[in-house]
Design goal:
Layout: E1 7-9, E2 15-17, H1 20-32, H2 40-57, H3 66-79, H4 83-109, E3 114-116, E4 122-124, H5 127-135, H6 146-156, E5 161-162, H7 163-177, H8 183-200, H9 210-216, H10 218-227, H11 240-244, H12 257-267, E6 270-272, E7 279-281, H13 285-296, H14 303-315, E8 319-321, H15 323-328, E9 339-343, H16 348-363, E10 367-371, E11 378-382, E12 387-390, H17 392-405, E13 416-421, H18 427-431, E14 448-453, H19 455-463, E15 466-470, H20 476-480, H21 483-495, E16 501-505, H22 506-520, E17 524-527, H23 528-533, E18 562-564, E19 566-570, E20 575-576, E21 579-580, H24 582-602, H25 608-617, E22 621-625, H26 627-634, H27 641-669, H28 689-697, H29 711-721, H30 735-741, E23 754-759, E24 762-767, H31 769-777, H32 783-791, H33 804-809, H34 818-829, E25 840-842, H35 847-859, E26 868-870, E27 876-877, H36 882-889, E28 900-904
Parallel strand pairs: 3-5, 9-10, 10-13, 13-14, 14-17, 19-22, 23-28, 25-26
Antiparallel strand pairs: 1-2, 3-4, 6-7, 8-19, 9-18, 11-12, 15-16, 20-21, 23-24, 27-28
Length: 926
């Protein structure tokens, strides 16, 4: 490969001409240091491979650094089994690094290193300047060693270094120090915020003027946003001073480094620089929260007071709205909804109308779930042409390509899920859509697939019975019915099956489904009858599918595209002084319900079917995140009856206040249009629907019906005022907003106690702060414990120095029997009027165990499941070796050989057994 690299970035950040001969020389010296001579041909080959690797990895406008080139040299030496030469080369690098650092430290002590500040002024860099800077922002972080940070930073500077480069160096080194203590992560966040403050407010985090500037410049920010046509001009009619007086800049310190960086990269509003060449952040975090609050209060009569109420709730991270709302509230284009669900008709007009609708929804960053069940099967007759249909698969292939072609707001490809009921004649091909082998014309790698499964099918699997597949236009009742009515229609069609049809063993189809689910993560399993029997809106339609993340269960039809607007209770913030703060929870949920209801009226709807549905039914979805954080704070093991009791109790309280406040909002604003005849209108609450499901299914639903709250009060309130919203509760995945909030996503258990989380903002070390606190209390948190934790991939099971009770309490996802997850999901499900994104984690290849898990989910009345996640060898990455660890934290980690497992931000890494393949940067439903 021809070398296309012209420059290399030196350690002083200056560009120099890239010279291939230098690489040849350094490899030669490494061979000679071990007495190897006459190796010119080998060295030529290695040099050529290094240059090719550089050329393939880097582009002209992004040249490699010296360190990156040296890493590639190491890699090539190891690849060709020159391990002794590689060790010599590593030793050479370390020796020269120490020499450089010692020279720099000597020059700093002599005050002979100059730096350049933000205004371009040159000054002498001293340890005292750095120490003073860091001490000014450290307030309250008792475990952060400023002297250590200064030492590490001083070793990496050079004469003429710019102050912003010093910050970048500090942030890079803090990433390594975060394993020492989680407070280094909060310190890194403050360093990032300090830079942001200086860019916008022209004073740093430690300045005595920060509060005054933060508030004074808020009005300027709003006017600039309106002038730049980024913010709604209605903002200028607010009392901006009143709002500014309530800004609390101290809440910026709630962010971890991951949270602050995520906000900085993706959420804070950006404007173009004067020459229009690059985007520049002009929004501070508390301004962002106030922008969101103002946008949600824009139609309120007392909008300043409501905006302040909303602001205090979201800026304290008690409740966090979904990403579309955080992105767009208060902007010129308020597309605030997360999820859309639609159904495809069996006609070319219907199919292509759906393509058009999905393209528009995707354009405006909506996640889409589409029911394809009505489309006729392969080989069936087409009226009018006397031809044969090619079935549903080719149309889903086009659906797949739309997801690629129409990206979300110019940011990322579309996010779509295709649903099919498993009596459809094309079901066997549908199940294999995500398979990595076979005819690519019948594969759809860029969407997600899910099944809508009836109780009858699950019973046939249990009984080892037959299962008949039909083409939908010949059995129209199957798509329009559920429960006993579905059974009656299905058995009638079985007796006189219309051609074409096919008979399979139910267990064979189930086995194939679970095999594909294990291998590819698809199709997801959702339960048609459970969803519809328990739906509060069964009087005005039918649920035909769930959404992209399986937590939304709303009616769809030709004229109605379901829409849902999401927010999540941060349960971690609700634990105060060792218990659930019920007053704070009630107050926060009251505000959340009002905010979510407001979204419906101010929202932009890309298609009329979405507006029709949302205005008519007004569904919202309040969920949960930080569940495992709450357990850690309460010292409750996930694998315990106490955890199941907490799942039941906490979800009941959330449900109680959500439903009650929707009814009280109906008192103020009126009930939703289709309220009459609903389960709410008939006095039937989510808990009551378990009895309905039990009756419809004809067998027990073994979930307790215990209740702690005064539900008679809720029934009386609903009877008097009705409900403002057809649906109130849905637990979304929350991957991105949980990053912002610094908690474990939704109701999932923590992945591991130390791991690397990857997203488009970079790689971030995540370490369990609660574990550190507990180990510190008993004197076990030290360097040897850190090394042991990393050696065991963040799992405690084999670290015998940790008490057994702690090892049990701090289990990772794959150490938790999935039965606990199913049981907890069942406890929550009895209080939820929609559903929850429930991931299943397994550490087995035993098909019987997988079957047992999903069968149990069905038996317990769980409506939907999400990904099946399994451990895959390809997920394990050797993130640290002795040299890397020593480089990361100096002599404190010498001789440590450790490993660390990585996981993507949302869904892990795709591989044969890694069940999850959704884009790690997906922000839908979160």
């Amino acid at each position: 490969m021809e070398n296309t690299i012209e420059y290399i970035i030196k350690r002083n950040n200056r560009k120099e001409r890239f010279e291939e001969k230098r690489i040849w020389n350094v490899i030669k010296k490494a061979f000679l240091s071990l007495g190897y001579v006459n190796n010119e041909m080998t060295i030529d080959q290695l040099t050529e491979e290094v240059v090719e690797a550089i050329a393939s990895k880097f582009v002209l406008d992004n040249p490699p650094t010296v360190e990156e080139v040296q890493d590639i040299v190491e890699d090539r030496l190891m690849y060709h089994n020159f391990s002794d030469v590689a060790r010599a080369y590593i030793k050479y690098r370390e020796e020269h690094k120490r020499l450089r650092e010692n020279r720099i430290l000597e020059l700093i002590e002599k005050e002979q290193i100059n730096a350049i500040d933000e205004q371009g002024t040159e000054f002498v860099l001293t340890r005292g300047i750095l120490t003073s800077r860091y001490e000014s922002i450290i307030g309250g972080l008792e475990r952060v060693n400023v002297d250590l940070i200064v030492d590490i930073v001083c070793r990496g500077v050079y004469d003429g270094v710019r102050f912003e480069e010093i910050d970048q160096l500090a942030l890079k080194e803090l990433e390594y120090l975060m394993e020492e203590h989680y407070e280094y992560g909060f310190f890194a966040a403050r360093l990032l915020l300090d830079k942001l403050y200086k860019d916008i407010l022209e004073c740093g985090l430690g300045s005595p003027h920060i509060e005054e500037r933060y508030r004074q410049q808020f009005s300027e920010y709003v006017h600039r946003g309106v002038q730049e046509e980024l913010l709604d001009e209605e903002f200028l009619k607010f009392d901006l001073k009143k709002l500014a007086d309530h800004l609390a800049h101290q809440r910026d310190t709630l962010f971890t480094y991951l949270g602050a960086q995520t906000l900085y990269d993706r959420y804070l509003q950006k404007t173009r620089s004067k020459n229009g060449s690059a985007k520049r952040v002009f929004e501070l975090p508390q301004w962002m929260w106030m922008r969101v609050a103002m946008g949600l209060a824009i139609n309120e009569t007392d909008r300043e007071d409501r905006a302040i109420e909303f602001y205090n709730t979201i800026s304290n991270l008690y409740i966090v709205n979904s990403t579309p709302t955080l992105f767009n509230s208060g902007t010129k284009h308020m597309q605030l909804s997360s999820c859309y669900i639609n159904v495809v008709e069996d006609s070319l007009d219907g199919i292509f109308h759906n393509y058009s609708s999905d393209a528009l929804l995707s354009k405006w960053a909506g996640g889409i779930g589409t029911d394809w069940t009505a489309v006729r099967a392969n080989g069936t007759d087409i009226k009018g042409t006397n031809g044969a249909s090619s079935g549903v698969i080719p149309f889903i292939k086009i659906y797949n390509d739309i997801a690629i072609a129409v990206n979300q707001g110019g940011k990322r490809r579309g996010a779509m899920a295709a649903y099919l009921e498993n009596w459809h004649l094309d079901i066997e091909d549908f199940v294999e859509l995500k398979k990595n082998t076979g005819d690519e014309r019948r594969r759809a790698h860029d969407i997600h697939t899910a099944l809508f499964i009836s109780d009858l099918f699950m019973k046939r699997v249990r009984e080892d019975g037959n299962w008949m597949l039909f083409t939908p236009e010949k059995v129209p009742e199957l798509h329009k019915t559920y429960g006993k009515a579905f059974v009656k229609a299905y058995e009638r069609y079985e007796k006189n099956p219309p051609n074409p049809f096919k008979v399979v063993k139910a267990r064979d189809l189930w086995r194939k489904t679970l095999t594909m689910l294990y291998e590819t993560g698809h199709p997801w399993i959702t339960f048609k009858d459970t969803i519809n029997v328990r739906s509060p809106q069964d009087h005005v339609g039918m649920v035909h599918s769930s959404n992209l993340c399986t937590e939304i269960t709303l009616n769809t039809s030709k004229s109605e595209t379901a829409v849902c607007n999401l927010a999540s209770v941060n349960l971690a913030r609700m634990i105060v002084n060792g218990k659930l703060d019920e007053d704070l929870l009630a107050k926060s949920i009251k505000t959340a319900i009002r905010m979510l209801d407001n979204v419906i009226d101010i929202n932009f709807y890309p298609i009329p079917e979405a507006r029709n549905s949302n205005i008519k039914h007004r569904p919202i979805g309040l969920g949960v995140m930080g569940y495992h954080d709450a357990l850690f704070k309460l010292e409750i093991p996930y694998c315990s009856q106490e955890q199941l009791d907490f799942a039941d109790m906490s979800m009941e309280k959330i449900s109680y206040h959500a439903i009650l406040n929707s009814s009280l909002l109906a008192k103020e604003r009126g009930y939703y249009e289709s309220y009459r005849g609903s389960k709410w209108d008939n006095g039937v609450l989510p808990l009551d629907t378990l009895d309905l499901l039990e009756k419809e299914r004809g067998e027990p639903i073994k979930v307790n019906r215990n209740a702690r709250m005064d539900w008679d009060k809720v029934r009386a309130t609903i009877k008097k005022y009705g409900m403002r919203n057809s649906n109130c509760l849905a637990i979304a995945p929350t991957a991105t907003i949980s990053n912002i909030s610094g908690v474990v996503p939704c109701v999932e258990p923590i992945f591991r106690n130390i791991y690397t989380k990857e997203n488009i903002s970079g790689s971030f070390l995540v370490i369990n702060r609660y574990l550190i606190d507990r180990l510190e209390k008993i004197g076990l948190w030290d360097r040897s414990m850190i090394n042991a934790l990393k050696l065991h991939n963040g799992l405690l099971g084999n670290i015998k120095t940790i008490p057994e009770a702690l090892r049990n309490e701090f289990r990772g996802t794959f150490e938790i029997d999935p039965t606990w997850i199913i049981e907890a999901a069942a406890m929550r499900s009895k209080w939820i009027d929609q559903s929850a994104s429930t991931n299943i984690f397994i550490d087995t290849k035993d098909g019987k165990k997988v079957d047992q898990i999903y069968t149990e989910a069905w038996k317990k009345g769980i409506k939907t499941t999400y990904y099946l996640r399994s451990i895959a060898a390809s997920q394990v990455s050797k993130m640290f070796d002795a040299t890397t660890a020593q480089h990361a934290a100096g002599d404190r980690v010498a001789n440590a050989t450790v490993t660390q497992q990585t996981i993507s931000t949302m869904h892990g890494t795709s591989s044969k057994n890694a069940s999850c393949s959704m884009d790690a940067d997906c922000e839908v439903c979160q």
